[in-house]
């Protein structure tokens, strides 16, 4: 079975080599847990392999994401040629008369369905929360189903970022049910430090480890030790 690397070696080793091709993976996180940095590693791995990627940004501008990827992963400007950005934050700012050149016309929902159907090897939606705030439940689940079809057809992996606790638990459960994989990122305070933890809840076609893993965010992105665990 084809696997698509997460871009983080120690996470790949826990997943049997990476995410199964043809799947939609949900990263559901506590605010500040750093799911977007996992997405940077994921896209950067695609860049290194010459794969075409799509990054859908709703909470940051494309420039902000590029700057963050440069900061954490040392990516050069010329390396972004293989990454297409859909920047809905700049579009909203542009509608107010600022950065009008970046304004995207048309309904975001339909634009995402159309663009994710194209032949990308890797897709990031950051984040689903934007669509959950602006569309009804049936539409949001329909968006995920559309991404699943596209991912399977293209043998791609689509990563969706979603924030915990913003919506009711029934909706969160429905989202977790419809995707192919769920990875939860959480934050806990322990004495004088913040601890970040990763739990692989489900992943189709994969023997899911029972361990909860610790990780840190460093100046080189995510640092996750394969032997670090929380029992």
Automatic annotation (TrEMBL):
Keyword Disulfide bond: no
Pfam family, one: ATPase
Keyword Nucleotide-binding: yes
Origin: domain of life: Archaea
Species whose genome carries this gene: Geoglobus acetivorans
PANTHER family (alphabetical): PROTEIN GVPD 1, UPF0273 PROTEIN TM_0370
Protein name per the record: KaiC domain-containing protein
Keywords, in A-Z order: ATP-binding, Nucleotide-binding
InterPro entries: KaiC-like_dom, KaiC_dom, P-loop_NTPase
Source lineage: Archaea, Methanobacteriati, Methanobacteriota, Archaeoglobi, Archaeoglobales
Residue stretches making up the KaiC domain: 2-231
């Amino acid at each position: 079975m084809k696997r698509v690397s997460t871009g983080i070696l120690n996470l790949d080793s826990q997943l049997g080599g990476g995410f199964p091709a043809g799947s939609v993976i949900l990263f559901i996180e506590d605010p500040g847990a750093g799911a977007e940095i996992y997405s940077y590693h994921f896209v950067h791995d695609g860049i290194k392999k010459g794969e075409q990627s799509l990054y859908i940004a709703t909470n940051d501008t494309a420039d902000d994401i590029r700057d963050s990827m440069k900061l954490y992963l040392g990516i050069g400007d010329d390396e972004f040629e293989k990454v297409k950005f859909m920047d809905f934050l700049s579009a909203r700012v542009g509608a107010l008369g600022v950065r009008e050149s970046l304004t995207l016309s048309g309904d975001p929902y339909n634009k995402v369905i159309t663009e994710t159907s194209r032949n990308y090897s890797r897709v990031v939606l950051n984040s689903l929360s934007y669509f959950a705030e602006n569309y009804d439940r049936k539409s949001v689940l329909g968006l995920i189903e559309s991404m699943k079809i596209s991912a399977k057809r293209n043998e791609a992996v689509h990563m969706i970022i979603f924030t915990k606790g913003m919506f009711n638990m029934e909706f969160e459960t429905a989202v977790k049910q419809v995707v192919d994989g769920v990875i939860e990122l959480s934050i806990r305070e322990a004495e004088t430090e913040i601890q970040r933890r990763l739990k692989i809840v489900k992943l189709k076609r994969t023997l899911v480890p029972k361990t909860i893993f610790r990780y840190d965010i460093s100046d080189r992105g995510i640092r996750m030790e394969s032997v670090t665990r929380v029992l």
